[in-house]
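FAQ

Q: What does a record look like?
A: Structure on top, sequence underneath. For example:
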């Protein structure tokens, strides 16, 4: 699916559009792609590609690696995207190429924002991992900031924000039962309970000595609601996973990164999405880790997103805090899984070096939300006796570098650190 170019565009307009398109850059060291092997395999699948492609790589790399393959040839040639998992230990569900390919192929006629699939390879002998190839959708991907040349006023920014949330709502309304490849995508009922248990285990497995115990996961287990309903959820909904129309950057034309899509509770999807939603007045560490332009004037706040979503869908909730805390804990688990690979030298990407700091901040945000929900400023034994590891986590915070301590202590009540606590984990 390509962006439509209006006939009355001037050359200057076209040059501006061309500058803001998401094109990719140089391939990162250690992440090279065997383009010859890919080309040979594509031809074996009956894909008409000529010669060797120009290969570029898109930014990111914390999850799956994404490459652009530009083939010259008669006419416009072929402009393709290849996705593969990263090297090193990986969480299977987070890097499942078969799932990602299957979901998008099944959704093509039911949801207008997915690209056309080309081919799936499960033979690791080709490039050392599963991968799939799809057609490139030409447009803008809004990452931490909108690209230079895309200047939206507050009204336009609100329109963009609304359109992104509307695309999520539209996904949640897809009638998955009419698509055989989607019906068996997940187990459906009981999703909330399974997710809490699953991320509990994943966090414990990925824990390193320099991150908190995250005993608040026990609070999640004791406050897990029944599923609000079952629908198709994306499970990684962020602005940098959508493609905007280059001619009108308020419009969504594509949605990417479907590897964690499943059948589940839409409110869990929303809570997970809002964990990435950094507002203008959030703390400096969260601002530095921001991956989408939700800080811009005109963007909805997290609370406004929830209110808008509930109004549009008619869903009702008794305890939004659960979904918000779960989203932050899940994000902490994702960040920690990535940091675990760096800590154990399974990846050398320097971008992951300080991910453990983000885990501490997410932990503090969870504690604050739970304290507000419980109506108590402190986590006393009377209020939350199952937070038995709180003292260990508090002692660990006291040992952090001063600038990091300052941020975390600005989130938590001072008396949180007044507990009689055992020594932090060595």
């Amino acid at each position: 699916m390509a962006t439509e170019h209006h006939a009355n565009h001037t050359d200057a307009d076209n040059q501006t559009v061309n500058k803001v398109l998401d094109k990719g850059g140089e391939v990162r060291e250690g992440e090279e792609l065997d383009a010859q092997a890919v080309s040979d395999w594509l031809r074996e699948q009956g894909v008409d590609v000529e010669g060797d492609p120009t290969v570029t790589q898109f930014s990111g790399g914390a999850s799956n690696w994404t490459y652009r393959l530009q083939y010259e040839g008669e006419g416009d040639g072929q402009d393709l995207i290849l996705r593969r998992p990263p090297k090193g230990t990986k969480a299977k569900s987070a890097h499942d190429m078969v799932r990602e390919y299957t979901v998008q192929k099944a959704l093509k006629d039911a949801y207008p924002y997915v690209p056309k699939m080309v081919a799936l390879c499960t033979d690791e002998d080709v490039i050392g991992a599963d991968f799939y190839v799809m057609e490139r959708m030409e447009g803008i991907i809004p990452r931490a900031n909108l690209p230079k040349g895309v200047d939206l006023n507050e009204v336009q920014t609100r329109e963009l924000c609304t359109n992104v949330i509307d695309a999520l709502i539209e996904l949640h309304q897809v009638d998955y039962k009419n698509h055989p490849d989607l019906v068996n995508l997940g187990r459906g009922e009981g999703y909330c309970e399974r997710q809490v248990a699953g991320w509990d285990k994943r966090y414990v497995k990925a824990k390193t000595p320099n991150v908190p115990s995250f005993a608040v996961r026990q609070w999640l287990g004791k406050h897990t609601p029944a599923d609000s309903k079952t629908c198709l959820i994306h499970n990684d909904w962020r602005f940098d996973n959508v493609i905007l129309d280059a001619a009108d950057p308020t419009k969504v034309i594509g949605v990417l990164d479907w590897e964690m899509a499943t059948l589940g509770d839409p409110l869990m999807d929303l809570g997970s999405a809002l964990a990435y939603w950094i507002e203008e007045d959030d703390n400096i560490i969260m601002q530095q880790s921001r991956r989408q332009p939700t800080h811009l004037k005109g963007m909805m706040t997290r609370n406004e997103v929830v209110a808008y979503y509930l109004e549009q869908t008619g869903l009702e909730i008794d305890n939004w805090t659960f979904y918000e805390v779960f989203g932050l804990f899940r994000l902490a688990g994702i960040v920690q899984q990535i940091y675990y690979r760096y800590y154990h030298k399974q990846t050398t990407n320097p971008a992951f070096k300080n991910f453990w700091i983000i885990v501490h901040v997410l932990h503090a945000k969870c504690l604050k939300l739970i304290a507000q929900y419980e109506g108590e400023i402190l986590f006393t034994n009377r209020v939350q006796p199952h937070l038995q590891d709180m003292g260990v986590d508090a002692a660990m915070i006291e040992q952090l570098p001063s600038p990091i301590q300052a941020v975390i202590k600005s989130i938590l009540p001072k008396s949180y650190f007044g507990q009689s606590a055992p020594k932090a984990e060595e």
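Q: Is there anything notable about this one?
A: The two ends are 53 Å apart (CA to CA).
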